[in-house]
Amino acid sequence: MTDQGKPALQRQTTNLIEKAARFNDISEKKTSSRDKRANFLSLGFFGEGNPSRALFNQTKNILVIGCKNAGKSLLLRNISRTCEVRTLRKLNKNQNTINSLPALTIQTVPTIGVENVTCTFDNQPLAFREVGSQLSPMWPSYFEQCSTIVFVLDVSNYSKIAGPATEIMSMLHGLMTSQSGKPKSIAIVLNKSDVASAEDVEKVTTFLRLQELCDAYTKHFGLPEESHLAIVLEISSSTGYNIQELLTWLS
Ligand SMILES: Nc1nc2c(ncn2[C@@H]2O[C@H](COP(=O)(O)OP(=O)(O)OP(=O)(O)O)[C@@H](O)[C@H]2O)c(=O)[nH]1
Ligand SMILES: [Mg+2]
What we know:
It contains 9 helices and 6 strands; from the N terminus they run H-H-H-E-H-E-E-H-E-H-E-H-H-E-H. The protein has helices spanning 8-30, 33-41, 51-56, 72-91, 139-143, 162-177, 201-207, 210-220, 243-250; strands at 60-66, 114-121, 124-131, 148-154, 185-191, 230-234. It is globular, with a radius of gyration of 26 Å. Residues 72-73, 108, 110-111, 130, 132 line the site of magnesium ion (MG).
């Protein structure tokens, strides 16, 4: 039977099926499977510029520890703000860098117990958990639940530096001797670098042999230096100095 001979409804259906087949054929040739996934994801369900990471990236659990008043809570406030501003700027297709935020002047209160903060940096979900200094004997029990540890060290007062250094050594030793699977990433952040009395961070790093400790830790797990498994970073939770660098390393 010719097309003319077919009932109208059947003809229309055949046309539609042929059209759909042609469209698929063209789309198949034009679009690689990767592009197709990106197109699907860019439908806008997930908000940000490259949402595939938000969908496929697992949340990273980050433990934030350090002595009393080291600046852990203020660091988390600044991290939250930096993530929000960066996301907004990206959405507005403004700029990707955040250089000009005013210093954070909010007052923090000593953390009793545990404080959780979640945010997203470049579509990587991050879950921070600050465990207050009062719980320092229990820090090792939190190691298991995280992939990364940020140890905050206050470098504004030289007399306060020796205590945390011992904590860092015992933490690294504990992690090296534990049998848990994947090695944890470690950032030792030298905070309050904005304070006039702050020790020269290179001096602190050398004095406490922090870089050597990080290198030994990385080597212990058979990883090259370039893996940046353990890093030392000068920051200021107040001015935001190097917060973006820390977030880049974390994500
Ligand atoms: N100038 C300056 N002050 C800071 C910085 N980071 C923290 N502070 C101040 O140090 C004090 C303690 O900061 P927190 O963030 O509460 O310290 P913490 O480590 O969370 O303290 P605990 O929860 O008690 O263990 C606050 O008065 C902060 O404003 C910094 O980078 N520069
Ligand atoms: Mg706190």
